[in-house]
Design goal:
The complex is a heterodimer. Helices cover 24% and strands 19% of the residues of chain A. By secondary structure, chain A is an alpha+beta fold. Chain A starts with a strand and ends in a 15-residue tail after the last helix. In chain B, β2 and β3 form a beta hairpin. The chains are: A alpha+beta, B alpha+beta. β1 of chain A pairs antiparallel with β1 of chain B, so a sheet runs across the interface.
Chain lengths: 314, 141
């Protein structure tokens, strides 16, 4: 990746210590895709993790069809139904908890399971434009996205993943290139093959029977719903609910930081590069555990910080 | 629900807007390394936060990103190229004169900056349409 800093020279921060830049080169993979809408509504889609119960739902009862539909799933790396997919499907009203930290926000969403335990799906938002997906159990692949506005009605999305424990295989790289999880299937110019101009190649028959959208690919399903809000979402007409609390906190953080900057206060996150070394993911925990405790169980740190593994300090 | 004014505040990223200025306090992904594969290869037009920029890979393999002059090249706006390291993660500042190398695992910026000239051009808005926005945005034909 090539990064650019476009602000005042004297304010140039260190590069954020995202874990994708800390693991060996063979353990990360980056793709990009074009998107036909304002970047903010796309970020908000990533932080509203309740949408997995709907947008990415697989309806097919037939096992072979369900497997095919899940082959590009964002639920996990497996290509077959498992407990997590059932829990997501069965509980479309997760309870959200949002916790702040120096580099951004933790967005935790707890769903019911088959027992009293809760299934937590926890995202990270990292200032000002990164979000990590909420799925990875220990040993699974971590995914993130970074939204870069081209202008106010289009953006590039850098879609990346990493595996702290091992290098990716060539088969995995080929899978990402073909569209998997946040990675879209794109042409030589990074335009998604299923995009706004061709109605995402929606298949209405598949939509009736097999998947919620009839659109192939999790990345493409996200794009379709985000683009459908228009080039720039009109938020004067929205009706937010309890599962939108992550979106609300994201707006408060971003708009507050922009207002503060207007008053001469530099954004703190830009000065805390090391605090970007965090992970996001999933966990099953006893119902009395709050998000602090769940994060500590899952990642060994209340905010998912793993920087000490890379010599970045506690 | 946001007011119309707040909605604009949140979503506008051009230079001089509050959110645009906030975004400009952080490093932004500009390109994949594979988009500048060759030393001395053709530069690529890119657009970020409403600003038209030019990215290139120099003879020594380092990457730079410069702001093209607003009109045709003129003596007063000639570009100087300085440079970022050919690492798997590369960073470059807008004025190629402020460029920083980084490698995976040690992404500490070591930029040595020089002049970051103010720009006079107003941000352009691309019309939203269909066929192949990437090409136009990217100059990648």
């Amino acid at each position: 990746m090539i990064w650019v800093y476009m602000g005042p020279k004297e304010r140039m921060p260190e590069l954020p210590q995202l874990e994708i830049g800390l693991v060996p080169g063979a353990s990360r993979y980056v793709t990009k895709k074009w998107q036909d809408c304002n970047w903010v509504q796309s970020v908000e889609g990533a932080l509203d993790t309740a949408h997995f119960s709907f947008l990415h739902a697989v309806l097919a009862k037939d096992e072979a069809k369900a497997r095919a539909a899940l082959a590009k799933a964002a639920i996990a790396d497996q290509s077959k139904p498992d407990d997590r997919i059932r829990w997501i499907h069965n509980d479309p009203r997760p309870k959200f908890t949002i916790l702040g930290h120096d580099a951004g926000l933790l967005v935790g969403a707890a769903r019911k399971t088959d027992s009293a335990d809760l299934y937590w799906r926890i995202s990270q938002f990292l200032m000002p434009n990164h979000a990590y997906t909420p799925t990875a159990f220990p040993g699974e692949i971590y995914y993130g996205q970074c939204w870069v506005p081209v202008d106010d009605v289009t953006c590039w999305i850098y879609t990346y993943c990493w595996q702290p424990d091992r290098p990716f295989s060539n088969a995995e790289r080929a899978k990402f290139d073909g569209g998997f999880n946040v990675h879209a299937e794109v042409d030589a110019d990074y335009m998604p093959r299923r995009n706004l101009s061709n109605d995402y190649l929606i298949d209405r028959k598949v939509q009736k029977t097999d998947t919620f959208t009839g659109i192939e690919g999790v990345s493409e399903q996200d794009a379709a719903i985000q683009d459908s809000m228009g080039p720039m979402q009109d938020r004067t007409r929205e009706h937010l609910g309890p599962t939108d609390v992550g979106v609300v906190e994201f707006r408060k953080l971003l708009m507050g930081a922009a207002r503060a900057l207007g008053n001469g206060e530099e954004p703190k996150a830009a000065q805390t590069a090391n605090r970007y070394a965090v992970r996001a993911g999933g966990w099953v925990a006893a119902p009395d555990k709050d998000l602090d405790a769940v994060m500590t169980q899952r990642f060994g740190h209340r905010r998912g910080y793993v920087g000490e593994q890379y010599g970045l300090g506690d | 629900m946001l007011s119309q004014a707040d909605n604009q505040f949140l979503t506008q990223s051009g230079k001089g807007t509050p959110m645009g200025e906030l975004l400009r306090r952080f490093w932004m992904p500009a390109l994949l390394s594979e988009e500048l594969p060759e030393r001395d290869g053709p530069p690529r037009k890119i657009k970020i936060l409403g600003e038209d920029l030019l990215a290139f890979r120099a003879t020594d393999g380092k990457v730079g990103i410069v702001e093209p002059p607003p009109t045709a090249r003129s003596a007063s706006s000639s570009r100087t190229a300085r440079i970022a390291a050919p690492a798997s993660i590369t960073v470059a500042t807008r004025n190629a004169a402020c460029a920083a190398p980084s490698t995976a695992g040690s992404s500490t910026s070591t930029a040595t900056a020089s002049t970051c000239r103010p720009r006079l051009r107003s941000p352009t808005t691309r019309t939203r349409s269909s066929s192949s926005p990437t090409r136009r945005a990217n100059g990648a034909t």
